[in-house]
Amino acid sequence: MGEKAINTRDRIMTTAENIILQKGFAATSLDEVITESHITKGGFFYHFKGKNDLALGLLKRYLDADELFFNQLFERARDLTEDPLQQMLVFLKLLAEGMMQVEDSHPGCLVAAFTYESQQFDDDVIQLTREGTLSWRRIFAAQLSKIEQRYRPCFETSTDDLADLLSACLEGGIILSRILKDPQAVGRQILHYRDYLRLLYDADSCRAAAGEAKPN
Fold first, then answer.
1. What is the maximum span of the chain, computed from C-alpha positions, in angstroms?
2. What's the rounded Cα separation, in Å, for the pair 200 and 209?
3. pLDDT per residue over 181-202, tens digit each?
């Protein structure tokens, strides 16, 4: 595929994603996507078989971008410290700062949007939605597992549950941001999660939770 075709395909997906996040998948028509992308109907069908194929392409692009973004932030954190807990705390601070740079309320998440309208999609899109959510779990849990090799948590938990809690903070923060028109909501939820992790693996906090005296 030539550069022009790649650019056209990218323009179609960017246009479609913006419309879908504003109106929902069911309410987004192919005619609207075609018109807003400034292409012909034949041009659209050169790149996509139909609306479901467009959804699959959008989801793949979205998940790839998320994975790249998370991995880049972890790389920056690992350049700053060798301690796995500090790496996670730096990652979360960078993630929160990135979310707080959004000037308006967060545009939304395609994974969440497609989950809400799962009846609109075939099995390929539904399966990719699940795989994408699990990929977030794997990325976060990998770092959390490194932390637990060095630190003992105050309470019994699992790295998968902690990883899913971060995903829940992200998705819940996006919902709050859109409902309340508050662009800082996502970042604040991430920072609360960061505080929770710091307390979860802090020796003094663990002793306090257990009712033990702090050593002299």
1. 76
2. 10
3. 898 999 999 999 999 999 999 8
